[in-house]
Amino acid sequence: MSETGPASLRAWLREAAERGELQSVEGADWDLEIGALSQVNYRRSSPKALMFDGIAGYPQGSRVLSGTVSNPRLLGSVLGLGWDRTDSDLVETLAAKPGEWAATARDFAATTVTDGAILSNVTSKPEVNLLDFPVPRWHEGDGGRYIGTGCAVVTRDYDTGRINLGAYRMQVQDDGRSASVNIEAGKHGAQHLRRWFEAEGRAPIAVSLGHHPAYLVAAGVEVPADVSEYDYVGAMMGAPVRTVAGQVTGLPLPHDSELALEGWVTPDNRRPEGPFGEWTGYYSGSREPILTIDVERVYHRDDPILLGAPPGKPPHDYSYMRTVMKSAIITDGLRRTGLPGVRGVWAHEAGGGRSLLIVSIEQRYPGHARQAAYLAAQLPSAAYMNRFTVVVDSDVNPRDLGEVVWAMTGRTDPSIDIEVMKRTWGSRVDPLTLPGEIAFNSRAIIDACRPYERLGDFPQVAESSDELIASVTRRWPEVLG
């Protein structure tokens, strides 16, 4: 089977190893140790991708991978932008890329093939047992073992046939015979399932559980509803990806996926799920019944690799990826609205890449700052679980929280510069959402720009000019090492 396609995990892993970005870990236990080591890794100054093998209770070669998009070199390579990326040039390069990928996705439509490495081993119901694979219990407070963290859940639009990939948490249920899939109501996958329920009473579903991290990126960000994530990955990679049709549902799976399953969901087939350590940094879930997949078939390669992307208190496994991608997508979205003067956007890791959004603008007219705030807070790519949107002047680096807070303390008058939007798009994973409540939230708009009417006479910032800094740095380079 080929391992050299445009989105081949094993080819990418070889490159990562050659670049010193892959670290092997032998002998960790699936029960908490893989999760704890992953957490320690992505809180290092430069995390690596971690490959766990020799996992307690499982044969050598049955592996778990985490940390694949946790630094700019790894993420740059996953996005097809090369291995030598830094934070700043990655963000700059990405500024227009998500829009470009969405616009050209149809030119890279996925191709269907009849064979693939994923078909090497096929298990059918009732022999299905998801615990044949080293599914981790990631956090000490988790209510079970979660096979779906870095997954790509495949659904199909009943009316148009469009395929969607989404990253949703999945807990192993029924001693390995099934898995619950926790999809927020507003997500494309949930909309697809509801329509199938209305029309057929059940919905087909398939899940890739190990794959090139590009699928994780596409499944985990807001790709436009009329664009298939498979085609989006093709545009990202510069060549169409290949898929194989599931033998039960016909849903397409990556042809070189490591591990996958397919089956059916019905409205009344639910299992208690959670709690689970979520991207907000808190445990989420109260054992409420969640849609559960009646797994008909499991596919896997020899020596399969389960892709893990466990969330938790930021920074976590994919918070860097989400921050960079969301920042680029929101920047592009704001510019496409016609809003002038956008200088930078950063969706901070401290807010999980969603809840804290900083927008830097060059003010051009009265109300410009407030307009930027309201637009950014409600863009489709930014609306979910946003809690604070802060707009700063172009002299403030939106990636530097110290500078942002400095701007807020000197340029924000709380009585007039903080506004609250109510009944906006929240989430069940929000720690402020009570069990059984509808998941609304509210969000604060903070204008941390100089008052427009005082741009000409606002106090000057007390710092050396760029020219003076450059001059003294040339004369005394040893001061900066």
TrEMBL record:
<dbReference type="Pfam" id="PF20696">
    <property type="entry name" value="UbiD_C"/>
</dbReference>
<dbReference type="Pfam" id="PF20695">
    <property type="entry name" value="UbiD_N"/>
</dbReference>
<dbReference type="GO" id="GO:0016831">
    <property type="term" value="F:carboxy-lyase activity"/>
</dbReference>
<dbReference type="InterPro" id="IPR049383">
    <property type="entry name" value="UbiD-like_N"/>
</dbReference>
<protein>
    <submittedName>
        <fullName>UbiD family decarboxylase</fullName>
    </submittedName>
</protein>
<dbReference type="Pfam" id="PF01977">
    <property type="entry name" value="UbiD"/>
</dbReference>
<dbReference type="GO" id="GO:0005737">
    <property type="term" value="C:cytoplasm"/>
</dbReference>
<dbReference type="InterPro" id="IPR049381">
    <property type="entry name" value="UbiD-like_C"/>
</dbReference>
<feature type="domain" description="3-octaprenyl-4-hydroxybenzoate carboxy-lyase-like Rift-related">
    <location>
        <begin position="117"/>
        <end position="314"/>
    </location>
</feature>
<feature type="domain" description="3-octaprenyl-4-hydroxybenzoate carboxy-lyase-like C-terminal">
    <location>
        <begin position="320"/>
        <end position="448"/>
    </location>
</feature>
<dbReference type="InterPro" id="IPR048304">
    <property type="entry name" value="UbiD_Rift_dom"/>
</dbReference>
<feature type="domain" description="3-octaprenyl-4-hydroxybenzoate carboxy-lyase-like N-terminal">
    <location>
        <begin position="17"/>
        <end position="92"/>
    </location>
</feature>
<dbReference type="InterPro" id="IPR002830">
    <property type="entry name" value="UbiD"/>
</dbReference>
